[in-house]
Specification:
Radius of gyration: 16 Å
Helix content: 10-25%
Distance between the termini: 42 Å
Strand content: 25-35%
Strand order of the largest sheet: 1-2-3-4
Number of strands: 4
């Protein structure tokens, strides 16, 4: 299986379970491995025949910066869903680093790997060739859930 890698995508978000982490955005680094076939794009040299990784990057970064997850695990799962909305992405590996989260450690990270079959609520939207149509992080017309305990986002 071919891969597209997006490495060390920097974003700031509210993440963490400690009360002190719920007010100030923290830096996270997102790494994505998008599993897809690159054979056709390799032959045609056409963007329409591959994953528009700039659009995926924008969708992921926009989501992360607006998110308020408690756990890196939850954020990674939502990012996987966003990537898998693109019909050309067959599987995705997501790693999120939270630098400085642990004293005496450079970073703490979670890494997950998911396929479309792992999410009953993710249906790929048809790619129509524009960056606004690809990988928006929406499933069945809705927005990805913002995972929070204790009710709706203020």
């Amino acid at each position: 299986m071919d891969k597209i890698l997006i490495t060390d995508l920097s974003a700031h978000c509210i993440i963490g379970v400690n009360p002190s982490e719920r007010f100030q955005p923290q830096n996270v680094l997102v790494n994505l491995t998008l599993f897809t076939s690159l054979a056709r794009a390799g032959e045609t040299d056409e963007l329409a025949d591959t994953v528009d990784y700039k659009a995926v990057k924008k969708s992921v970064r926009d989501y992360v910066e607006a998110s308020r997850c408690l756990l890196l695990e939850s954020l990674a799962t939502e990012i996987a869903k966003i990537a898998l909305v693109n019909p050309k992405v067959e599987r995705v590996k997501v790693r999120i680093d939270k630098p400085g989260a642990l004293r005496y450690a450079r970073t703490v990270a979670v890494e997950i790997e998911r396929g479309r079959e792992d999410f009953a609520d993710v249906a790929p939207i048809p790619a129509r060739g524009t960056s606004s149509d690809i990988g928006l992080g929406r499933s069945r017309g809705g927005h990805p859930q913002r995972h929070r305990r204790g009710g709706a986002r203020p």
